[in-house]
Amino acid sequence: MTSILEPDAERQGRPETQGRREFLATRRRTALVELTMTVLTVAVAVLIAFLVVLATGKDATGALNALLTGPLERTPRIGRWLADATTLALLGLSVAIPFRARQISLGAEGQVYAGALASALVAIHLHLPPVAAVLVPLAVAALAGGALGAVPGVMKARLGANEIVATLMLNAVVVRVFDYLLTDHIKAPDSSAVQSAPVRPDSALPLLSDFFGVPLDQANIGLFGMLAVAAAVWFLLARTPLGYRIRITGSNPDFARYGGLDVPRTIEWSFVIGGALAGLAGAHLALGVYGGLQPDMAGGLAFEGIVVALLGRNNPVGVVAAALLYSYLRVGGDVMEQQTDVGSEAVTIIQAVIVLLVTARALPELVKRYLARREAR
Amino acid sequence: MGQVLDVVLSTGFLAAILGVSTPYVLAALGGLLAERAGVPNIALEGSMLTAACTGALVAGYSGSVWAGAACGIAGGALLALLLGVLHLYLGADAIIAGIGLNLLAAGATAYTVYALLGDKGGTSRLHSGALPSVRLPLIEDVPGLGAVLSGQNVLTWAALAAAPAVAWLLYRARFGFHLRAVGEHPEAARSVGIHVHRVQFRALALSGALAGAAGVFLSMGAVSFFVTGMTAGRGYIALAAVFLGALRPWGVFLAALGFGTAEALAVQLGNLDIPSQLVSAIPYAFTLVALAFFAWRRRRASRTAPASPPGLPSPHLTETP
């Protein structure tokens, strides 16, 4: 970002450009430290899981090997990895935006189902021209998710209602309504299993296998869509007034209020945008991964989105990297389960340790102090 | 409609409500204690799951259901204490640490069951037994009442006793006084010599133990085996009951009973061609509306409240020339 301005500024040598250089250097260093910390966190979590597996007398080395190299061994596994990373990154971004405004929204689960339901209904029933056939269901999914996000957002911003309870309750309602609609109304009459009719071929997200000529399982162009969404979120947060308001509201709500920012409106928008992204994740599941609606299709994914957001430090680039890293472990966990006697639950333990390590902010401080004390001796 | 009334008014249904409500009541009262002490305990779910798993495993291997129940409850308390360590000592956000602990409980219980028994589903091959139900010799013969109260599990009775016990603890006991002081104003509590962290740790231990009892009921009361993920979000629902009950013991008790009633109703109506998913969604929708209503009332009250404490001249009186 500095390649055009920097040489010119250097020639002039103004003090403010020097300040800017220092600022950029500090920021690069911080980013490097954060990246190291993230990789270290995952490594420690994997190590702990390795020790647990070892302690229970299982084939720990084989399990670790399957976990770390399994996903790259066959192209369909790479495809599953990329598809999973797409969903998780969208969910991570959807959680990260309210997080940046210091709002803990646990509503992604309901929003995923709402997005999946809305997009699949459009994609199953409406005849649309070729490009619109893909774009309209996605837009509808984002609208459905965003509308659902608005409910706890308005409740929190205007009434001060606890957003955690509100989102959890809304999830419980939406999941049950989804289940009811699927079993009693949407279920394809000719199928014995509880699932919807497949989406129209025009509306299904084109598979990457068709472009690259290698079998890539469910991976689809949603991957590129996700990257575009991540770039848009970065732009929103870093370069727009709303993004500035979200960041200030999150880092110092009192300052935001005294500075005359409309804090309630900012909070509402953070929920709506987060909901829209979760809705897109639902559309990716319905139109890309499953090609229709299935019961329990997003089971537990929303909480994984929180892990990804935390691991990516609520930063769009970080979230995408964390989603890639984390879904790699998930696919590796499945390979591990198939090939060794270690269940994929070990990955859930890794995930939990990651969350606990990331959130325990004082931990690095304690480690540093401990190391300093040992050096002093 | 007549059919529905028959079901709802039957003694079997009332007895079922008490059974289904038991885990909600126990866990919600646990959540209340932690919340009043100023630590939101979202790890109720994890405490329940840990306790359900530990209870069934210990009971299965030791042959004693009481040892299983005790270890289960201790396991639930231990997880809550872990939340305390993370939140109070390591500066972790209580909500996110709680979510992490819930994940840990989900992964660790599933992993342990699979490692010990080689079964991914649960401990059904381990005959762990259930806690006994309590029969009431005299009341048993009273028509109606006997069928509802007699034969309930010992933990259902514990849940019924827990509500007055928690109310007594919070409002009558010295510890409850400290607990509320710590939750409402930790600085003030510290200034009068209360060990804030110690009180919060004890509140969390109690909270986890109550959630543990709720978990033990699931795997050793309602059924006699552990199923992976058997809490199925009940801990989160219990947390909602804490807020729906306006942070008061009897309110929380009634809210938990309400969730139990709706779940029991959904099960019963499932047989009658009424969509059970919609029935079971009602309490959550109701909670959402109640949450908005209470928040709106609180906000309105804070707006219309006098700006200065009573007894002092109100500002506009002093400001008028």
What does this structure look like?
The complex is a heterodimer of chains A (377) and B (321). With 377 residues, chain A is mainly alpha-helical. Chain A is built from 16 helices and no strands. The N and C termini of chain A lie far apart (46 Å). Chains A and B meet through helix 6, helix 7, helix 13, helix 15 and helix 16 of A and helix 5, helix 11 and helix 13 of B.
Layout of strands and helices, then pairs:
The complex is a heterodimer of chains A (377) and B (321).
Chain A: H1 5-12, H2 15-55, H3 60-73, H4 75-100, H5 108-125, H6 130-159, H7 163-186, H8 208-212, H9 222-239, H10 241-251, H11 253-258, H12 263-289, H13 301-311, H14 316-339, H15 345-359, H16 362-376
Helix pairs in contact in A: 2-3, 2-15, 3-4, 3-14, 4-9, 4-10, 4-12, 4-13, 4-14, 5-6, 5-7, 5-12, 6-7, 6-12, 9-10, 9-14, 10-12, 13-14, 13-15, 14-15
Chain B: H1 2-9, H2 11-36, H3 44-62, H4 65-89, H5 94-117, E1 133-134, H6 145-149, E2 152-153, H7 154-171, H8 174-184, H9 186-191, H10 196-222, H11 234-244, H12 249-269, H13 276-304, H14 315-319
Antiparallel strand pairs in B: 1-2
Helix pairs in contact in B: 2-7, 2-10, 2-11, 2-12, 3-4, 3-5, 3-10, 3-11, 4-5, 4-10, 7-8, 8-10, 11-12, 11-13, 12-13
Please supply descriptive tags for the structure shown above:
heterodimer; A: 377 residues; mainly alpha; globular; B: mainly alpha; two-stranded antiparallel sheet; 73% helix; disordered C terminus
